[in-house]
Design goal:
Blueprint: H1 2-45, H2 50-71, H3 77-95, H4 99-119, H5 124-127
Helix pairs in contact: 1-2, 1-4, 2-3, 3-4
Length: 128
């Protein structure tokens, strides 16, 4: 009986530690991408050249692709695809010079990133 309790406690500790690590990683990487998206939004507002905007979007897309592979282990793929779709939409709107629509997509993508982090955060609201 004592052995089972000890094993359960050890497993519970590993789960909690793993959750803390994944939450910290997802929060940090989401904050980094959100910061990049906010910089892109500022660049769009200041009427930067399309080539500069495209470079920034490519940089954001590369960062997202790096994080996607790691996030896929512990976050639903549907949520991740929403972010990818947002980035692709921003890119296409920028290339077609529809900057108002690109701004809307930037805002939506930032919201989705924040939602993902909040959704997978362990707190009483998410447990019950």
């Amino acid at each position: 009986m004592k052995k089972e309790i000890i094993v359960c406690i050890i497993i519970l500790i590993f789960i909690i530690i793993g959750d803390i690590i994944t939450q910290k990683y997802s929060k940090n990487s989401a904050d980094e991408i959100t910061k990049e998206l906010q910089e892109l939004e500022t660049m769009i507002e200041s009427n930067s050249e399309i080539s500069t905007l495209t470079e920034k979007i490519d940089n954001i897309e590369n960062k997202w692709n790096e994080n996607y592979n790691k996030w896929a282990y512990f976050i639903e793929h549907e949520e991740l695809e929403k972010v990818k779709t947002g980035i692709v939409s921003i890119k296409s709107y920028t290339k077609s010079e529809e900057l108002g629509e690109a701004m809307n997509e930037v805002d939506k993508t930032i919201y989705i990133l924040e939602h993902i982090v909040e959704k997978y955060k362990v707190n009483l609201k998410n447990i019950f």
